[in-house]
Amino acid sequence: PTSSHLVGLIGTGVGPSLTPAMHMAEGRAHGLDYVYRPIDLTSLSLAPERVGEVLTWARMLGFDAVNVTHPCKQLVIEHLDAIDPVAADLGAVNTVLFTEAGAVGHNTDTTGFAHGFTEGLPDARLDHVVLVGAGGAGTAVADALLRLGCTHLTVVDLDVDRASTVARELVGRHPLAQVDASSFDKLSILLPHSDGVVHATPTGMAAHPGVAFDPALLHPDLWVADIVYRPLDTALLAAARAAGCRTLDGGHMAVHQAVDAFALITGLTPDADRMSQHFRRL
Ligand code: NAD
Q: In this prediction, does ipTM exceed 0.90?
């Protein structure tokens, strides 16, 4: 057994990611020699389609594990030797462990959202939840909500075909739940009767300021979760607080994807509160 760990983050533009700092601080707190480095496909001039080769090189160069992010979470799957059932259902992998059995894929975005949700909005009602944004992150969130016991999920996206496709796939994976698709213009009908809304579009990030839907639709019986985490306090969350809603910021998912990955990589139980406090100081 070795107490040293070498971990990478494969994706485009991953240089500024806060995930390496989160892992390394937690590794230090456990007394590990834990090195976590970005492997930025953009600065290496490597096309995302070459992720399989990068995986092979990482393994040959002695990495113990990698996180995989945009745009490689689907592309990486065909290069794995085994895949955890939750990640296989989702069709996306963000953590690859190099084990004796080969490269094994997991998805801690979906487990991380679930753990962050349970931490930040305990006892929140999940009878009818609206998900705004059906991209890669939104799909991981949808699976998490349905595993947490959401009985009716409505998926909304500017791209209505995408919302319908995602909803259909979710029904296939969660046959006991009601999952449907809708459009932005129906939010005025949906939100007054919903328990909660999760926002998973890029709106609210520094590069895409604003709120994705009319904040006048928010009401005190609705909880509001935003997965945007740069900034942590988005215009949507400010409007939700002003409307009297319980809120959850995107830091919970960002931290818990790292908490769950650290646990998989090291076999140790990370201190989620310590990782969260560190993340919020970064
Ligand atoms: P993506 O591009 O795959 O999907 C975004 C989806 O939002 C698309 O389907 C798009 O059609 C839809 N959309 C709906 N309304 C939109 C609008 N007004 N403007 C733009 N798009 C709109 O992106 P993704 O990978 O799913 O990530 C979405 C956001 O989630 C990211 O920008 C990031 O802020 C956040 N995110 C957070 C975490 C976390 O750990 N907290 C993790 C991953 C992503």
A: yes
